[in-house]
């Protein structure tokens, strides 16, 4: 019987990772997790000062990170993100498409084309485009891993969130499609669906105490998550510990969807 060791497979030493939308929230926690397991991490968001501050905080803790600003819906920014990553660290092994927006809250019949397209551009199309730009470098990596951050809203429609729900459902099928096509090159693609996580994006759902209570009552663990509770799943999926895992959809929702 082969006696393979498991722990070293979680190591990300010498791997280079981009995490979009990682100046705060779930993206920041995932970026830190990858860096703690040895990856060189590109911290990215729209604001250069914010990503510089996060990268500096990681470096102060002995981790390796660089901040590169990128509005994921801007094609030039996406190109620069990949180019600068290559110029800084010389390779790319892991891409986490995490940045998202949710500009419209209201009934589906009131969703304007503008709000719809803005949501889809940031949440879904950017993930497709960035993955395609990353592909030649993930091929060279030999163990490329792409992770799309969807949501339980990609599996279960939340009323008044139609564009967001659609974008998150699209990410699940984008990931499955890429996984089928890229498996032969050992590039794995997986999707994480968080439940309610206490961040700026979800503020409207937890700032109001009554509404927050309504939501937590629907969660078997009876609380919302903190961003660090999503990071372990991302580290595992990024690493060789998940070498046989591709095309998967992984829910971390405190039991909410049952
Ligand atoms: N929080 C939840 O309950 C929850 C639940 C399920 C899924 N999710 C998903 O988890 C992911 C992270 O959400 P979060 O709750 O951690 O959000 P968050 O705390 O608001 O953080 C969002 C991050 O994305 C960046 N960002 C926003 N728009 C961007 C753009 N156009 N281009 C590049 N970066 C952008 C923000 O920085 P800048 O503003 O500086 O650009 C920030 O770093 C999203 O995909 C979200 O849909 C969240």
From TrEMBL:
Q: What SUPFAM superfamilies does the entry give?
A: NAD(P)-binding Rossmann-fold domains
Domain of life where this protein originates: Bacteria
Q: InterPro entries per the record?
A: NAD(P)-bd_dom_sf (IPR036291), Sc_DH/Rdtase_CS (IPR020904), SDR_fam (IPR002347)
Task: List, alphabetically, the Pfam families matched.
Answer: adh_short_C2
Q: Which PROSITE patterns match?
A: ADH_SHORT
NCBIfam families of this UniProt entry?
PRK07231.1 (NF005559)
Q: What protein family is recorded?
A: Belongs to the short-chain dehydrogenases/reductases (SDR) family.
Protein name, UniProt field: NAD(P)-dependent dehydrogenase (Short-subunit alcohol dehydrogenase family)
Q: Which organism is it from?
A: Neolewinella xylanilytica
């Amino acid at each position: 019987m082969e006696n393979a060791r498991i722990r070293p497979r979680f190591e990300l030493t010498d791997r280079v990772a981009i995490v979009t939308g990682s100046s705060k929230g779930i993206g920041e926690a995932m970026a830190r997790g990858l860096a703690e397991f040895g990856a060189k991490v590109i911290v990215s968001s729209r604001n250069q000062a914010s990503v510089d501050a996060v990268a500096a905080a990681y470096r102060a803790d002995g981790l390796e990170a660089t901040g590169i600003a990128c509005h994921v819906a801007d094609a030039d920014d996406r190109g620069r993100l990949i180019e600068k990553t290559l110029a800084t660290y010389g390779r790319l092994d892991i891409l986490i498409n995490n940045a998202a927006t949710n500009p419209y809250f209201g009934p589906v019949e009131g969703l304007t084309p503008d709000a719809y397209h803005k949501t889809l551009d940031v949440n879904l199309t950017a993930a497709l485009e960035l993955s395609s730009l990353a592909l030649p470098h993930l091929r060279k990596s030999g163990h490329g891993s792409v992770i799309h951050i969807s949501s339980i809203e990609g599996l279960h429609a939340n009323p008044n969130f139609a564009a967001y729900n659609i974008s998150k459902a699209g990410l699940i099928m984008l990931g499955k499609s890429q996984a089928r096509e890229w498996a032969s090159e050992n590039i794995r693609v997986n999707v994480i669906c968080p439940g309610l996580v206490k961040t700026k994006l979800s503020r409207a759902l937890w700032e109001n105490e009554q509404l927050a209570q309504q939501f937590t009552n629907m969660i078997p663990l009876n609380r919302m998550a903190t961003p660090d509770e999503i990071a372990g799943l991302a580290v595992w999926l990024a690493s060789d510990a998940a070498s046989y895992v591709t095309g998967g959809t992984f829910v971390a929702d405190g039991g909410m969807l049952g």
